[in-house]
Specification:
Elements lengths: L4 E3 L7 E3 L22 E6 L3 E3 L3 E4 L4 E5 L4 E2 L4 E2 L5 E10 L5 E10 L2 E11 L3 E10 L5 E7 L5 E3 L2 E13 L1
């Protein structure tokens, strides 16, 4: 049952209209979401990607398991939150079985390195990186990796390679 009026016992009309004269987020019972935003996405790799030797390369996650508010762009690999706040973001990359090396993985914020993690790959490991990050509504985050095996390395399409994030709190 939706709450539509509150008795005031003395305000002019003896009631406050809660259907059209209240600003902010409406409760679920009144047809709202119950929260300021439900920003969350989970993208994954749906195609192989080749990484050249000795070069930082942006990872493309071309498909989504979900994207509640359209904040992840499968075309350019960018997460642009649309709501300023603190976010929890994470990524994982499944490296080829035949490659024994170290793979640094980065989050870039607005095109510049933000957070880096060194992954050691010894026969097909999955490198994981996660961080909290404060973002303005128009900031964007991408995932990058580096390898120096002596030749190009191909990461297969897989649910093991993914990028995800969600809003922790609005600032």
């Amino acid at each position: 049952m939706a709450l539509t009026k509150v008795l005031t016992g003395g305000i002019a009309d003896d009631a406050v209209d809660l259907t059209s004269k209240v600003t902010g987020v409406s409760p679920v019972a009144n047809g709202g979401t119950g929260s300021a935003s439900l920003v969350a996405f989970h993208a994954y790799s749906n195609a192989t990607q080749s990484f050249p030797h000795n070069a930082v390369t942006q990872i493309n996650f071309g498909a989504e398991h979900y994207d509640l508010t359209g904040v992840y762009n499968v075309g350019n690999g960018r997460f642009t939150p649309a709501v300023s706040g603190i976010y929890m973001i994470g990524a994982r990359i499944r490296f080829p079985n035949s490659t024994d090396t170290q793979f640094p993985v980065w989050f870039y914020k607005n095109g510049a390195e933000y957070h880096r993690f060194q992954c050691n790959n010894f026969g097909g490991d999955t490198g994981h990186i996660s961080s909290t990050i404060q973002l303005d509504a128009d900031d964007y985050v991408t995932v990058h990796a580096y390898q120096a095996t002596g030749g190009a390395v191909t990461i297969a399409s897989s649910n093991d390679t993914g990028f995800f994030g969600h809003l922790i709190g609005v600032v």
